[in-house]
Structure prediction request, 180 residues.
Amino acid sequence: MTKHDQEQEQTICPWCMTEIVWDEEIGIEKHCPHCDNELSGYRTVQIGIDRDDEDEDQEDQEPEWDAQDEDDSYGGQQWSEGDEGFRRTNRAWLGVEEKLQQIVDHQEEAPECPSCREYMIEAGKQKINVEPTIHPAVGKPLVQSPFETVIYICPACFNTSAILSDRDREVLVKALSPKE
Prediction:
């Protein structure tokens, strides 16, 4: 094997910068054996930092933005005069988040939303009248009608959840507990 053949078989992977020495029996592969990236798929992007003359040509082609040229049909003056812009919305939402955090901090429970994992806020309590099922394994109803649930609302995705109240949880646990 000549020195020229050895240089051809040694390649530097453009992804991991590892020098690759190809096996003579297998030959040149399409993927780097170290990082498993495609060797022929390496692409470069020309940023043009060194090309000042091209930048000047592009600047000449693009018109300068002037505040006087704003077109009212696109809402140009609306955004500058109104108080409903991006920053105003963010300030309002920050106030909402602060108030939500205060509510969650004062709740006994703060379940996570099953959809988006945000903390849910308590909306109220609901009494439910049902005809209770008597399971043969227990021999009595698991909950007494009417029972109470606590309704929670997710402030992010507005999903709702109902959780059995503390009193009715105790009734359920007693019904499921083995008799002593």
About this structure: Residues 124 and 151 are 5 Å apart (CA to CA).
